[in-house]
RNA helicase
Amino acid sequence: MFSSIQSAKRKVITFGDDGEQVSRPTNTSTAAESSSSSSSSSSSVRKHNDTQNATTKPNGSKIVPDKVLSSSSSTTAVSSISSTTEETGQRLSKKQKRQLQHQQDSRPKKLINKEPTTEAMTQKAKDLKKHRNSLPIFTARDIIIKEVKENACVVIVGETGSGKTTQIPQYLLEAGLAAHGTISVTQPRRVAAINLARRVAEEVGTPLGQKVGYSIRFDDTSSKDSLIKYMTDGIMLRELLSDRLLLRYSVIILDEAHERTLRTDILFGMVKGIQKQRQELIDRGRKDIQPLKIVIMSATLDAEKFSEYFYGAKIMYISGRQFPVKILNTVEPQSDYVDSALVTAFQIHQDEAPGDILIFLTGQEEIENMEKLIEEYATDLPPTVGKLIPCPIFAAQDTSTQQKIFEPAPHGTRKVILATNIAETSITIPNIRYVIDTGCHKSRGYNAKIGIESLLVEPISKSSARQRMGRAGREAPGLCFRLYTEDSFDQLEEDAIPEIKRCNLESAILSLKASGIDDVTRFDFMDRPSKSGLLRSLEHLYALEALDDEGKLTEIGTKMAAFPVDPPYAKVLLQSEKMECTKEAIEIISLLSVDTIFSAPSSKREEANEARQKFTSLDGDHLTLLNTLRAYESVKGDRDWCRENFINSRHMRHVLDVRKQLIQFAERSGMDPKKTCGHDLEIVLKCFLAGFFQNTALLQPDGTYKSILGGLTVSVHPSSSLFGKKREAIMYDELVFTTKHFVRGVSALESNWLSQAAPKYFGQRHA
Ligand SMILES: Nc1ncnc2c1ncn2[C@@H]1O[C@H](COP(=O)(O)OP(=O)(O)OP(=O)(O)O)[C@@H](O)[C@H]1O
């Protein structure tokens, strides 16, 4: 940590600009990046946009709107903004700066504001309307409506910030396409679903939850009256269980399709099939059924491939971004991107015009370390420079913590958002003018042969880089600092490998089976998963008793599919009813829903370890977590106690939230969430074994552990309470390859428990 600070103090990162070296913060260049920006610009994104427009022109069979947007409207938008750039740039007078700060102060302090006055509302409505009409997509409004009305499937490719996600659902609503059902817009991430719904509700002019709502796991603000509903892809898959033909929807918009998440890929095949089924029923004279429209959207996708998959769907290209973003690549490759990101953030803070910063990092630990580094280093800033306030966001946070990134920074300060790729697509974070792209992300992989997941830091794709850049130009012109060279950008893959080809498929298969697709091998996948991946997942579901000998969904499987957790956890919850430990099972699953409930700052690691001893169970992590929760509740979550005991109170609150949701879910499923095994906690471990019997390893004579599945030598992660301890058998929550095969969330077992927990599985293996 220290070396980073030291280097942050002395280092300057040099960024190149069209071959010319520019040491930020000289900020001398004026060329702006955007398909609609000045012709002098020639960076990679500009080149990309130009190339895209030139090479993706329609072939005879596909339609491109006769009007490819970008021309007059976006040029107008960009030129009017150029003057804004001047106003907010370095040439600001003191008075202008004061005015600007005042404007920033007057931004809403909270996401949910007090009721505005009628006059203010009218003005706000006017401003929003003006904003809507200034978006590049506005000039394509009529043709978009026409194409969607005339075609069953439409693929829309439009630049980041052109207005796809907020505007297209509204255009379709205005055109009457919600007359026979809701317009749904799926998103891969819940933070995007929430904030898009908030924004669009504001634009439509009704409170959230009325005409416009959202639905994410454990939180549904939509109502029967909602005409536009933003939802995660997972929720849409869950809705399929109770509405096989998705009859409540008239249009399904699959947004950010380029991300190719496992769930979105399953949805592609499902909605395609549903559209066909609905049409067949209509053709047979069913008057109560309406056709389903499908719209596929993204800023960066292989439109031809999607069109082919969706029966030769119409393709529309919408070019033009509202504001230009200038890209600056480093001149030299950076050996330590975290250090470089830190240096760049402080360079921007000290030398650039007002505006918040968004840094893309790879994971929670890296983000939390960066947060501390920024806090520490910021104390050395000269008094004339305002504060730099770090603001983390990653998937394991609770929803309300994630919303903090949307709150304005206090007067005279600058916010620096530290995000994983959760902030990469769809969202508009107010006041972001600077993006720092480390060029890396954590990518989940799955080795089906040995059933092992890996989580490795890898280079992003070009698509991701463009999406990241797009976060900077949403409210004003922006700058994107790429911490890699232009050559490195050129060498990136165009798109990431679809998750379906590299992830564990169990929950996807369970969803398919529960939606009535028995033979998953014949499902209409856009990209087929590997045979070995499918087989391994089917085998595991069979071992979990979710499938019968013929591969059909069992009663247990049907119940498991309804639980909002992955199949092994769902099995634990079902088993807990029989073993009378539902309370403890729910608590431990909630505790495992965050990365860790402990905080261990590197400077106080020994103290933190000592504090943790108080809660440590000899049986391992599951019961250690439970002990910690009990202790936390006995002091009613006292923050000082948390600090003294190195407990992350933010994560603890998230755990309580998940517990509450799981209790409600269990109640709705007819279970008794209060059933407890009292002090006989061995029962809880046996219960977990019912879901995790494949995640087990046996101690070897040489003192190492060998996994029962795949026979791999595995190491207990240093964060585990069983680190360095020898037990005859262990069960673990996850096995991840990073530098070696580590197991995390580890508890001790007696080896004879194994055959009791899964007689089918162990009986077969030892036969
Ligand atoms: N929550 C918000 N607050 C303020 N402005 C917003 C908000 N959401 C959207 N906007 C404005 O509307 C513009 C269009 O946003 P929209 O999400 O529709 O674009 P998009 O084309 O879907 O982009 P992307 O491909 O990045 O998702 C943004 O650039 C921004 O100016």
Notes: Residues 262-283 form the longest helix (22 residues). The first strand starts at residue 15 and ends at 17.
